[in-house]
Design a protein that fits this description.
heterotrimer; A alpha/beta (258); B mainly alpha (204); C alpha/beta (291); B: 204 residues; mainly alpha; MetI-like fold; C: alpha/beta; D-Maltodextrin-Binding Protein, domain 2; 10 strands
Chain lengths: 258, 204, 291
């Protein structure tokens, strides 16, 4: 099953305790199976944008389509069960063991016990966690990296058509982060899951994304491939975001020279 | 003390009646406090207001409240039952609110984002994690209620309080001591069992 | 929750309601909050039980007002009351010297006004009074209430809440004897009224003439020389509805009441308060024919 297409046009959202919109005039076309990274400084609205797609944040203007259907007409609870959701703090349910956590959405969807158990094992292995060792562990017994692996396994357990991730690796140390980045890349590539990935780490976006949507003050400044964003930044905001990094400079050079 | 040994069955029967009174009042109190706390947990201003009112009720001298209730309802277990339920609210509601608010916001967000309905999130995530704090509140309330229920003996509600008050009337310290010791023992037993329950529902 | 568990819970929850219902068929015997009332109520209760009637005890309820309120509400079906108390405190009538006339009046009025029935009274007369220690009686030359009326400004009174307000209490004393302006008046719970006197915190205490303490502590009860206080004979007062439902109550208690006299009353009170005996045991002994 291939990933869903997600389409945003003219989307605007404002938080109730503010007068200025958090995001405005958002147009974004995500192709099935595409990996889009949302980057930008704090407060630019990247998390907000992500959360409009699974309707955790309501929109006041514009339209969001999930596989061609306006999501405003869908039951939000049912829709969320078809979209994987992984956040920085992971949010593993502390009173459930790892297996129960991973199996939450399949259980909400009414899968039978055997199917859930099989899928849990499958997802734990995919996340490089030995099921026999980890099934019955409690969240507080896991390291940061292990917890996030379980989080990813949980997000993908019900075979979602799309995956929303909000800085999932932000709290992890560099080595663990690097491992998880590569593994995630392989997993979602293999499954063809459409992925939207919020990050403040521009290197991460360069590594993982098919296209990068650079945001600033609630708007998308540019949405293009890593190469295009580096070689041909739309404005100074975009350029400055990718500016201070030797590796990036090198990439930029490579891009310029073909 | 000799009364206790001379009439163990009678004291036990009074103790059972006392326990029944406390248990039913506790159940009724929870039936009010749980939904009230769940609703108030999301509302800062309303919860401050309601807790303020409940706290004020809590400071009303119990004998005074009981006297008013006897005027309204009559003698027997009814007025003390109402008083127990009213006094328990402050502790219970406060603990339900604390328990619910103490639930990790990341887990709340994840639950909703993953596709739990509000009801499912309440019962599958929030309640299990709020439970230890709530049980802690139940424990405190229950022990206080054992003491408070002795006032029932003053208004014809039976229980261990009636032993204490009759002892007082007929100048028998034995009965007073027996009633007090039994009430103490009951309170300790309840405290112990609820501590055990607290440990059982602990999340980690 | 399985169905069987839910059913068990429902059964458990209905138990208090069930017991309350069955208990309502029982005759609820009440008493006021002093030893004699409790003992006499126990006598009534045990007599009824021996006759095969189901009885529920609600003893130690409180003052006269509380007992009557309980009767009105049906919380209790019968309790022991005193003719003098009913006449002066409840019906607000002037004292009637003749004990029989007093009883008749009270019986008729209670039936008429409250639908409550007075059964056969006991010869026992638990009159109100003021008591003091032999030492204080000697020091101030106190033998009668007239003498006490004049000596009051030098004396501290220990009394109970009812006494301050009831017409045949302190107000009655002041009206009939004049004087009776005590140096201080302290109100105590009925169970403590002699303690203040005996520990030297008071000089005079409200008394009831059949109190066991009078005998045990050798107190002096001052003579009511101007006859403020009428007879206070105890009798069972029953709700008319209860009596109609269960006429045996009258037969059983009418047989018992004539046997309660001053002597027996004082000794039963003393047994409970000073010899630590259980009111139920003392009542049982009385019914068995022993003292």
């Amino acid at each position: 099953m291939s990933g869903a297409a997600i389409h945003l046009s003219g989307v605007r959202a404002t938080y109730s305790n503010s007068t200025r919109p958090a995001i405005d005039a958002i147009d974004l076309d995500v192709q099935p199976g595409e990996f889009i990274a949302l980057v930008g400084p704090s407060g630019c609205g990247k998390s907000t944008l992500l959360r409009t797609i699974n309707r955790l944040v309501p929109i006041e203007a514009g339209r969001i389509e999930f596989d061609g259907t306006d999501i405003a007409g869908l039951d939000p609870v049912a829709m969320r069960r078809t979209i994987g959701y992984a956040i920085q703090a992971v949010g593993l349910f502390a009173h459930m063991d790892v297996a129960a956590n991973v199996g939450v959405v399949p259980s909400l969807l009414g899968w039978d016990r055997a199917a859930i158990d099989a899928r849990v094992d499958e997802m734990l292995e995919l996340a490089r966690l030995d099921p026999r060792q980890y099934r019955h562990r409690r969240p507080h017994e896991l390291s940061g990296g292990e917890a996030q692996r379980v989080g990813v396994a949980r997000a993908l357990a019900a075979r979602p058509r799309a995956l929303l991730m909000d800085e999932p690796f932000g709290a992890l140390d560099a080595i663990v982060r690097r491992e998880l980045q590569h593994e995630l890349h392989d997993i979602v590539r293999g499954a063809g899951t459409t992925t939207l990935f919020v990050t403040h780490d521009v290197n991460e976006s360069l590594l993982l994304a098919d296209r990068i949507a650079v945001m600033n003050a609630g708007r998308i400044e540019q949405c293009a491939t890593p190469l295009e964003v580096l070689a041909d930044p739309a404005n100074e905001h975009v350029r400055d975001l990718f500016a201070d990094d030797a590796a990036v400079a090198k990439l930029r050079e490579r891009a310029k020279h073909g | 003390m000799s009364y206790l040994f001379a009439h163990p069955l009678h004291v036990a029967a009074l103790g059972a009646a006392h326990l029944a009174l406390v248990a039913t009042a506790l159940a009724a109190a929870l039936a009010i406090a749980l939904p009230l706390g769940l609703v108030l947990a999301r509302r800062e201003h309303a919860s401050n207001l309601v807790l303020g009112v409940l706290g004020a009720i809590y400071t009303i001298p119990s004998l005074a409240l009981l006297a008013v209730l006897v005027e309204l309802i009559g003698l027997g277990s009814a007025p003390i039952f109402v008083a127990l339920v009213a006094y328990a609210q402050f502790v219970l509601v406060r603990n339900v609110i604390a328990g619910v608010r103490g639930v990790d916001p990341a887990q709340r967000d994840a639950a909703l984002g993953m596709g739990m309905s509000a009801v499912q999130r309440t019962w599958r995530v929030i309640v299990p994690q709020a439970l230890p704090v709530v049980v802690g509140g139940v424990r405190v309330a229950a022990v206080a209620m054992v003491a408070l229920a002795t006032l029932g003996g003053y208004v014809g509600a039976g229980g261990l309080g009636s032993l204490i008050f009759i002892g007082f009337t007929i100048h028998h310290t034995d009965e007073i001591v027996a009633g007090s010791v039994a009430a103490c023992a009951l309170a300790i037993a309840i405290d112990g069992s609820l501590r055990l329950l607290e440990r059982l529902v602990r999340v980690n | 929750m399985t169905i069987s568990r839910a059913r068990a819970l429902a059964l458990l929850a209905s138990l208090p309601i069930a017991t309350a219902c069955t208990a309502r068929n029982a005759i609820a015997v009440g008493s006021k909050n002093f030893t004699e009332s409790i003992v006499i109520a126990e006598i009534y209760a045990q007599a009824l039980e021996r006759a095969g009637l189901p009885v529920e005890r609600r003893l130690n309820l409180g003052s006269t007002q509380i007992a009557l309120a309980a009767m009105a509400r049906g919380d209790i079906d019968l309790y022991p009351e005193y003719t003098g108390t009913a006449l002066i405190d409840v019906l607000h009538h002037a004292p009637i010297r003749d004990a029989r006339a007093s009883y008749d009046y009270v019986r008729d009025e209670f039936k008429r006004r409250y639908d409550l029935v007075w059964l056969t009274p006991s010869p026992m007369n638990d009159s109100q009074g003021l008591a003091t220690t032999a030492a204080i009686a000697a020091r101030y030359h106190l033998r009668t209430l007239s003498q006490l009326a004049l000596a009051a400004p030098r004396l501290r009174l220990a009394t109970i809440p009812e006494f301050i307000s009831r017409p045949d209490g302190l107000p009655g004393l002041q009206r009939v004897y004049g004087g009776f302006r005590f140096k201080s008046v302290h109100v105590y719970d009925i169970a403590l009224k002699y303690q203040a006197l005996l520990t030297g915190n008071a000089d005079v205490a409200t008394a009831f003439t059949t109190d066991g303490a009078i005998v045990v502590d050798r107190l002096v009860v001052l003579e009511d020389d101007k006859h403020l206080w009428p007879a206070y004979n105890v009798a069972p007062v029953v709700r008319a509805a209860t009596l109609a439902r269960e006429p045996r109550i009258a037969r059983v208690l009418d047989e018992i009441s004539p046997r309660i006299n001053d002597e027996r009353a004082r000794m039963m009170n003393a047994a409970v308060e000073s010899r630590d005996r259980d009111p139920a045991d003392v009542a049982a002994d009385f019914l068995k024919g022993a003292a």
